[in-house]
Inverse folding.
């Protein structure tokens, strides 16, 4: 029997919607930080606030999970999806914290801006997938959004390889320490996109099992 697998009397979908919006807001702040780079920007603290909000939303969802007898889909999938969404914001904060701590100059770093743009686009596709995943009639659209995430992840991989290649080619212009620090930041940014792809895979699995 086919049915809408998100019961109307449960609020899990609403919580997931809030969690995914929080992820998008963090990604937008990340991109804005790259557009208006300032090592003392208030956006660093704003991103930390989004990370804290993500933790609160996850705790709320887990608490609801512990007090709900009949869940809209497998408990393990609910727990996994909430955790992986939280991982994205954690990684955005980890990346921006290092950018600030290392005191690197990203004011003219077009590559980092492009990475931030990919992060933003990826989180928007995830947000759309999550908003549609409860509706069996929109299963195809949910898959399409997940495919977009996979495509953005490939774009991110290609861009990071290019940035690393250019970084090592320019070793005569910057110190060895700066090479190491820039490399770490680029790889953290790439990990943000990888975390998004993990969420897309989780969504696909949920839809396959429940629609």
């Amino acid at each position: 029997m086919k049915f809408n697998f998100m019961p109307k009397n449960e609020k899990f979908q609403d919580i997931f919607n809030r969690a995914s919006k929080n992820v998008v807001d963090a990604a937008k702040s990340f991109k804005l930080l790259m557009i208006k780079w300032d090592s003392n920007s208030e956006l660093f603290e704003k991103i930390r606030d989004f990370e804290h909000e993500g933790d609160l939303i996850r705790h709320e969802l887990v608490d609801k999970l512990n007090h709900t007898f009949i869940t809209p889909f497998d408990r393990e999938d609910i727990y996994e999806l909430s955790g992986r969404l939280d991982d994205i914001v954690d990684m955005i904060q980890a990346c921006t914290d290092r950018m600030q701590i290392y005191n690197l100059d990203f004011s003219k770093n077009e590559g980092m801006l492009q990475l931030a743009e990919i992060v933003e686009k990826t989180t928007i596709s995830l947000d759309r997938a999550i908003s549609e995943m409860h509706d069996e009639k929109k299963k195809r659209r949910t898959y399409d959004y997940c495919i977009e995430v996979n495509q953005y992840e490939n774009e991110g991989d290609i861009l990071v390889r290019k940035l690393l290649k250019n970084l090592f080619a320019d070793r005569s212009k910057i110190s060895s320490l700066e090479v190491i620090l820039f490399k770490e930041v680029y790889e953290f940014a790439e990990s943000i996109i990888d975390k998004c792809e993990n969420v897309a895979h989780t969504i696909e699995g949920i839809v396959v099992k429940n629609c």
Observations:
- The chain has six helices and no strands.
